Amino acid sequence: MTLKVLSVASEAVPLVKTGGLADVAGALPAALARHKVDVTTLVPGYPAVGRAIGKGKLLHKWPSLLGEPARLLANKLGEQQLLVLDAPALFAREGGPYSDPSGKDWPDNWHRFAAFARAAADIAGGAVKGRSFDLVHVHDWQAAMTPAYLRFAPVKGGRDVPSTITIHNMAFQGYYDAAIFPQLGLPKSAWSMDGVESYGGVGFLKAGMQSADAITTVSPTYAGEIRSAEFGMGLEGIVLARSNRVHGILNGIDPAEWNPASDPHLAANYGAGKLAARKRNKRALELEFGLDKDDGPLFVVISRLTWQKGMDVLLEVLDHLVGIGGRLALLGSGDAAIEKDFQAAAKRHPGRIGVRIGYDEALSHRMQGGGDAILVPSRFEPCGLTQLYGLAYGCVPVVSRTGGLADTVIDANPAALAAGVATGIQMNAVTFPALAMAVSRTAELYARIDQWKRLQQNGMKADFSWDASGAAYAALYRQLVEGRG
Ligand code: ADP
């Protein structure tokens, strides 16, 4: 039997993206189609969405969705089936999906994403004629109120659909003052520790974790880590209490987007058997970043420039990286102080460090295709995608041993090298000595040409397609639907 699933996400490739969530929400439908799961994705009607796909077909109108008029529009993008929540008062704004053009969070984000979740619960509950779903799958805090609405304020006479929530990052919880509670359209019974209340306020992610039938996160190691206070960030108690419902399912990568043999962004395409062709990409990258041409390792970073990503520690290690003959090309944006420090480092090390502040999808492909090693020194990393792209592109990942980084990279220790299975370099902690040592180890391995080539080839041959993860999600969905049946 084909299952019909409503996936609820505040960003999805190729419509709008700020991070890995968008990659996953965009890739899931195709990954699940192979397992007889028919996914429709609900996204907010940001201006970028309208620009990308036009208006669509009107399916439903809300005269007042948590106080604002809204419409539901059906549309298609390639094979993706989309539902767009058109609510101009909430979403017709320029800027990011969560912030104004200057990067400041919109003050009414709680309202925007509570309304989004209310709409999702209505749709899943059968309020929209001609659309029914067997299960609703919500992503992150922005969609997390959906299971709470289904549980505490379901559509009258509607369907009792099971729900599952995926946590892409526990650090973003959607936590708001208790004063918003009366405006959420929930009964008083929802204001409890078992409902939406969280440390005296309203916790969107918490509410979803408490109310959904299952909780998934994006790697097995992170699923274990969030049981501790360090990674659970206040919600570890719920993870522990509901631990028999918590699953870790690794993200895959979309081979249509990320394949060095066919990537249109690269100067030269290549495969594991044709690695020499990468040289052209490396030269092009050196030129693009104004870096010296030499035979040392070219490190790359493609990242949000934040504490989570260990970028403050990387800043400390730059002199060492340059001192051992390395170069760095960095693309990212984030904390203003970190951005400034990287720009200053580039000035201090002309020809050795090149920095591009901003967001540039095409450049990120060129960096994976031309860099020798990608640095991902995250303090925590639920799954991480850039190391997976690095593996697929022969841009050897140098990562901290946490979350999805621990689950996807095999450290080039002597045993792994002897067995011929290593794919990258791991460090134990995100500290100056650990990162400096990882950079040195990378340079030493890079100098042993055959060993380096083997690392690259092992990574390129590893399977990080969605096959296994798609099957795992499909199995979970069926289990939840049968549980209700
Ligand atoms: P997170 O979601 O925590 O930011 P992930 O590694 O899971 O980290 O996903 C980040 C995604 O965003 C990857 O697809 C990465 O290539 C992309 N990305 C991050 N920063 C940039 C940037 N400045 N320009 C282009 N792509 C970027």
Describe it for me?
The chain contains 20 helices and 18 strands. It is an alpha/beta fold. Helix 12 (311-323) packs parallel to helix 13. The radius of gyration is 23 Å and the shape is globular. The two termini are 14 Å apart. The structure holds adenosine-5'-diphosphate (ADP). Adenosine-5'-diphosphate binds next to helix 1, strand 13, strand 14 and helix 14.
Principal-axis shape: globular
Q: Figure out the total of helices.
A: 20
Main-sheet strand order equals 3-4-5-2-1-6-7-11-12
Mean model confidence by pLDDT: 97
List low-pLDDT spans: none
Distance between the termini: 14 Å
Q: Could you give a short account of the major beta sheet?
A: 9 strands, mixed
Strand content: 15-25%
Count the beta strands: 18
Bound molecules: adenosine-5'-diphosphate
The helix content, as a percent range, equals 25-40%
Rg computed from alpha carbons, rounded to a whole number of angstroms: 23 Å
**Which structural class is indicated by helix and strand composition?**
alpha/beta
Features:
single chain, 485 residues, nine-stranded mixed sheet, six-stranded parallel sheet, 18 strands, binds adenosine-5'-diphosphate
Summarize the structure.
With 485 residues, this protein is of the alpha/beta class.
Secondary structure layout:
Blueprint lengths: L2 E6 L11 H14 L3 E8 L2 H7 L3 E9 L2 E10 L2 E7 L1 H4 L17 H17 L9 E5 H4 L1 H8 L10 E5 L7 E2 L20 E2 L2 E3 H8 L2 E4 L2 H6 L3 H4 L3 H6 L4 E3 L29 H12 L8 E8 L5 H13 L3 E8 L1 H13 L4 E5 L3 H10 L2 E4 L9 H8 L2 E5 L2 H6 L5 H6 L5 E3 L4 H16 L1 H13 L5 H18 L1
Helix pairs in contact: 4-6, 6-7, 11-14, 12-13, 12-18, 15-19
The structure holds adenosine-5'-diphosphate.
